[in-house]
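Recall from the previous lesson that a structure prediction takes nothing but the amino acid sequence as input. Here we apply that procedure to Peptidase A1 domain-containing protein from Letharia lupina. The sequence below is the only information supplied.
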Amino acid sequence: MASSTPAPIVIPPSQDFDGNDGPWSSFYLEIGSPAQDVKVLISTAGYQTWAVVPQGCVASDPPDCATLRGGLFIPSQSSTWSYNNASINGTFTLELETNLDFSGNGDYGYDTIVLGYQGSNGPSLQQQTIAGIATKEFYLGVFGLNPRSTNFSTFDDPVPSYMATLKDRSMIPSLSWGYTAGNQYRPGTVLGSLTLGGYDSSRFVTNDVTFAFNQVDERDLTVNIESILMTTSNNTVHLLNNSIAAYIDSTIPYFYLPLDVCQQFEDAFGILWDNDVQAYLVNDTLHKSLQTQNATVIFSVSNTTHSVSISLPYAAFDLIAEYPLVTNTTRYFPLMRAMNDSQYTLGRAFLQEAYIIADYERRNFSISQCSWDPGAQESVVAIESPANSEASGKLVAGTDTRGLTSGRIAGIVVGSIVGLLFVVFLAFRGKRKVTTNVDTGFQGKPELAAKDAPLFHGDKTSNAKTLGLDGGSDRERELDSYMHPAAELEASRDIQEMKSNEEVGIELAISNLQVSELPS
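The prediction returns the following tokens.
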């Protein structure tokens, strides 16, 4: 590869595990001037940066709310912050996970974002899209990896994403990334891994399967789940009767699967659906029994011609729910009952054991079993942009090119044309009707009364009220990058500063990189 090609950027994890539904390996961002440190989770579906603002911690929250939510970004304390003026005070609905009944609003603006903690010399970009959030639907902020632009007014005025700007400014070799969520249950604790413009080959077991992006951009990282097996030392149980298509999305922790599959899990693991909480809670007795059983769940995912198996131990399903999801901290099994096939999702819990590489220029991705070699040294590999490579048809590492018959090649070409026409259709279909009656989500609603049960993100037909600050809109919304203006933010709320004595993570690993051509 030419020496002028930039190297991939490895973003160091924070060394901490955060969140109220995991916890999870988080990452630092510096936002604003002077820089304010916040910790966020990685969203493979998101295309913006969200940070919790002071309105996200109210008087009824725990005294350490700011720390629990990864730290607060205070726009008024940044000299470089500017509001998005496409709506009143820049408030828009959060167009992410709406198909899963998540809702909320963001106070949108622009500011400087640096990836990594202060002093790590991570990439810095000015005037980047930021949503200040208060909703507890998303307890920590997020950093979106999808390079899609955001349209706040019309489709003729897109605002580039952080990833696209990195590529446009030649700060990464291609629009690509490699990511795994990390986990706490492996010996020594495994932190998350994020590489922009490449991947870390030491973190996964190589396979020869690649997946084409879904033609619907909002569900680009879709795989066919061919089978789900639960195995123990003396038994194997089939949990999936018919193959389904599921979207890989690290924004949320859950597995959204069909009801009949959930019922198979119930029989295999002895878990019970709690209608009040809308979740599978696990008491201590059941937890000990499941630890003794020590089952493994094997997902076989395919691209219709070749498959990859991802094995997850019971520990990957042994998660902790905390306030405000539940009143008292409890274990839960991260399985959700999908209401329709648009909700089938493999969430962050899946990526504890899987490594995903996405290449947006070639529109393909790969899924691999994580490698747990404790002696493995980091091995960062660049994914070269097709524009800089003579072999522009090459795919990311792990590509299977042996079976490309003329029929398959024709299919790929036709699929690409259809995908392009779909994008053109989106660009010219015009401005959508905006929402004018949306709750701002910054009202500081009181917590549930004792007679009400907290609710995980579940069935909207339940009479229980969701616990949190946001209601959003109950109307049907398409999932695209057009933002919907919401009501004005309230200005006066309790503000809790973020803690300043958080542990410092490792430095950005942007040297000692292995740069190679992609395998043919």
